[in-house]
Amino acid sequence: MSEQTCLxxxxxxxxxxxxxxxxxxxxxxxxxxxxxxxxxxxxxxxxHACEVACMKELDLPLNQYGIxxxxxxxxxxxxxxxxxxxxxxxxxxxxxxxxxxxxxxKMPSCAQHCQAMVITYGxxxxxxxxxxxxxxxVLFTPK
Length: 143
What we know:
- This protein has 5 helices and 6 strands; from the N terminus they run E-H-E-H-E-E-H-H-E-H-E.
- It has one domain: Alpha-Beta Plaits (2-Layer Sandwich), CATH 3.30.70.
- The protein is an alpha+beta fold.
- Helix 1 runs antiparallel to helix 5 (about 125-130).
């Protein structure tokens, strides 16, 4: 597996407009012909089911991941008593989108085992269009 491409929508106006501009360029490019994972981390519960399923599918040893759950926060929101904490499932360079499973007509293991159903597998163009409408999403496409 060579390089990977990730686009991240942050929910902030400037980051969102930059992400949208990047998506527009990407939708016009040839890179959108493949498949990828769309991760809606707004609702990720941090259960690690994606990590465990991927490690089992790829037969990875401990501390090697095809998808790694990153923790962003916790941090207190400015001028508020509320706190912000995000869990972000992030595919690594070891992710091959479960080529063997997909060839058998199955979803990638992480998407199948995600208990919160925040990982979607599909054509990059469709996933990028969904991502453009909502912040707090990550689009992963291996090159």
